[in-house]
Amino acid sequence: MIANLLVGLVAAIHVYILVVEMFLWDKPYGRRVFGQSAEFATASKVLAANQGLYNGFLAAGLIWGLSLGPAGHAVQLFFLGCVAVAGVYGAMTVGIKVLFVQTVPAALAAAAVVLLG
Hints:
- By secondary structure, this protein is mainly alpha-helical.
- It is built from 6 helices and no strands.
């Protein structure tokens, strides 16, 4: 139960990121979330939408894993690993905050899946 909640939380985080990157990137809310100027947001809108789509795939994989019940643990762990690696890379290239938004929740969820199944 706790493992499923944590995996669901990571999926929800990535759905949120999808929405902000794909649909709100150049809007005031999206610019505020990512600390972007209007000019930069306009210039990078297509790249951000592509990034958002990838975050959506991560969420979809986690939801798929959850839908399989206990048989989906391997799927969940694969996608949680992808999230964790993306978070580490984001922390190195964008800022340390990404580590806490992506990697830490993914690592906690993976530990729960392994330990609590």
